[in-house]
Amino acid sequence: MMHALYNKKNEKILTVSIIANDSFSALFKNPNFYGVFFFTDANCTVTTDGNEKAIAKQNILFYYPYQKLQFKGNFEGVCIQFHPDFFCIDIHAKDIGCQGLLFNNFMNDTILRCSQIEYDDLCSYYAKIQAELSQKNIGQQDMIASQLKMLLIQAVRYKKGKQKIESARKENIHYQIEKLIDAHFIKESSAEFYAKKIEVSVSTFNRLCKKYFQNSFVTLLNLKRIASAKNKLFLTNNSIKDIAYEVGYNDPLYFSRVFKKHTNISPKEFRKQLKNNRLI
After folding, report:
1. Beta carbons of 75 and 42 less than 8 angstroms apart
2. pLDDT for 240-277, tens place per residue?
3. Which of 40, 48, 94, 160 reaches 20 to 30 Å from 105, CA-CA?
4. Do domains 2-168 and 172-275 have the same CATH topology?
5. Which residue from 104, 93, 94 is spatially nearest to 66, judged by alpha carbons?
6. Is the dihedral of CA 179, 48, 83, 252 positive or negative?
7. What is residue 62's three-state secondary structure?
8. 52 vs 14: which has the higher pLDDT
9. Contact 103, 64 (CB under 8 A)
């Protein structure tokens, strides 16, 4: 069962759907959307950007357009899909604070593991969205957008609260690597630079990347640059060549190859799908 919101051109811009492992792939025929997936029951793993995590009931997964996603196991639940033209996470990033925390958080994970109270609270927002979609009414798009925004703000609050607990459990080196890549990914491409900053050998640094992030340093660097490039491809009219330089690539052709490797789509097509198309 699916409920949908349409724009004035009768194009689908938001949906609320029931999901299960046997029907999930149908949602990704054209993954040009942000997604919030509520798992009412699950015994599975999800791999995003090479990072595998377990999913259980009362978990919520946040999906960024053209992220590689693979499930193993069984699950069921509900998902909200919305096109960036309806509600753009990148535009609202400063207001909500969810970009790099809930969405595109490849250095940690994009799963919110909720208590029953937290899960019920967040589910109440999608229930209100679903109720709005069940009948046409004045100000419908604004009402749904406001409920979606409140859902994401509350999810950020829960996530940040859990991060404080998690940070006490993890070794400080985990956060040093994350902050260094965030600060220097555009200009610094060598593992030697980062290894020197944390005073370890290059081989030890590479092992730490695999240990904490399940990816090599080169993959982490590329994922960070691609995340930045996605933002620029949607929010600016800068040429793909210029964007390649802006995120740290000296060769635009190499940038396009890396981008497609991690998203299954070229930078040009990514921009087209997010700027011109709606949900299928």
Report:
1. yes
2. 999 999 999 999 999 999 999 999 999 999 998 887 66
3. 40
4. no
5. 104
6. positive
7. strand
8. 14
9. yes
The angle formed by the CA atoms of residues 192, 178 and 232, to the nearest 5 degrees, is 100
Rounded to 10°, the helix 116-133/140-169 angle is 160
Class of domain 2-168: mainly beta
CB atoms within 10 A of CB 105: 20
* The pLDDT of residue 165: 63
Q: Which two tokens stand for residue 84?
A: 């960036």
DSSP H or E stretch at residue 153 = helix 140-169
And the tokens for 226?
């691609």
Domain ranges of the chain: 2-168, 172-275
C-alpha–C-alpha distance, residues 54 and 160, integer Å: 20
Pairing of the two strands 59-63 and 2-6: unpaired
Q: Does domain 172-275 correspond to CATH entry 1.10.10.60?
A: yes
Assign 47 a pLDDT band (cuts: 50, 70, 90): confident
What pTM was estimated for this model as a whole?
0.88
Identify the residue whose tokens are 């689908």: 12
